[in-house]
Amino acid sequence: MNKRTTKALLTKKKISEAALRLFNEKSFSEVTVDEIIKETNTSKGAFYTHFKSKHDIFLEKFKEIDDYYVNELVHLIAKEEKYADRLEIFLRLQMTYIEKDLGWDVIRTIYEVELNIERDSFFLIPDRPLYSILLDIFVNGQKNEEFRNDLSPEKMMDICLRTMRGILYDWALRKANFSLIEEHGDLFRVMIRGLMK
Amino acid sequence: MNKRTTKALLTKKKISEAALRLFNEKSFSEVTVDEIIKETNTSKGAFYTHFKSKHDIFLEKFKEIDDYYVNELVHLIAKEEKYADRLEIFLRLQMTYIEKDLGWDVIRTIYEVELNIERDSFFLIPDRPLYSILLDIFVNGQKNEEFRNDLSPEKMMDICLRTMRGILYDWALRKANFSLIEEHGDLFRVMIRGLMK
DNA sequence: TAATTTTACAGACTGCAGTCTCTTTGTCAA
DNA sequence: TTGACAAAGAGACTGCAGTCTGTAAAATTA
Q: A46 with A106, same domain?
């Protein structure tokens, strides 16, 4: 780690922290890049050497949190015997995390940005830990004779992901005017019932 | 209808038609407002007296199509005896219409724009015919003892809408790299199974 | 029919994300 | 040590959606 890299990393950190703080104080769309660089005494050049876009700075942090948190969840569900229970608890913890820690504006922004054509998608990265956790549940839940086996585990994971995206999209759309924690259960229980033997 | 109004309506139509043609030729995001007004020999002033935004011109047409088509669907499903069958057929026809007639870019654009905070949402308008059709199915399907009755029809409609949004969001996200017509069945059958007695 | 008001429209202007070019300064090979 | 190179950063510039102000002509009122 030489002098130049150290300084560069510091600049990146400075920009990232200021930006995230501002996103939090206002909302993502109300913060401008000019504001961020003014606040940090940097420049457009500095900003765009470190981040591909204004969204990128946001997604980078999100990835970090997402990975960390999802990995934590694995341990919390591992003690459940039934995979259907693991799934239910996992989904509940996810929704709780999203509602309490991430919040509405974060989800709204991510779901909006993911549909931008120019940018590369985060949801489509195949090795998100979220995907392997779900797949594991369905593979083993089928072996355990809990889930139907006329659908492949991959198919079931797709169904589950689409259902999650549906409620999260709706939550973002409605500006969080219902509680994810309270309402996710109805939808997911219907889905799980449809997936069981 | 006086002279001024007639001319204004003509201008609006001219802009709308040119814009929709261009959106179709390229894609929504590749067409600029400047291009539209140049093509139609009009001006920013003209454009923005008739449309609230570039998205608006698009949504206006979409509403029209949506209403027309959804109203048509009512008749096509009315002959089915079982409400669960009505629901399944309705969903299949919807997905077919979306995949064949609307296309991926239209759905992508709408789902993206709906998450914009500044604009008023189309999905949240309570009297979309889509909503009354679904509600009718659940109300009568419950009376008919087909669907479970520990969930209100409104709740069931929410579940159904969220599931639809989930698959459509995913389809838009994946740039239509799977066929809605072929794949919607797995998801919706799981949902319907979860909703049945 | 003259005076006043309204409105469709023209086009200059603003705000913002993102790009491009140029400069400075640290790094590395000889 | 020095000369070539690379990479961090500065800031002017571009492209685009949307706003603002001014104007001509139609509609309305007197």
A: no
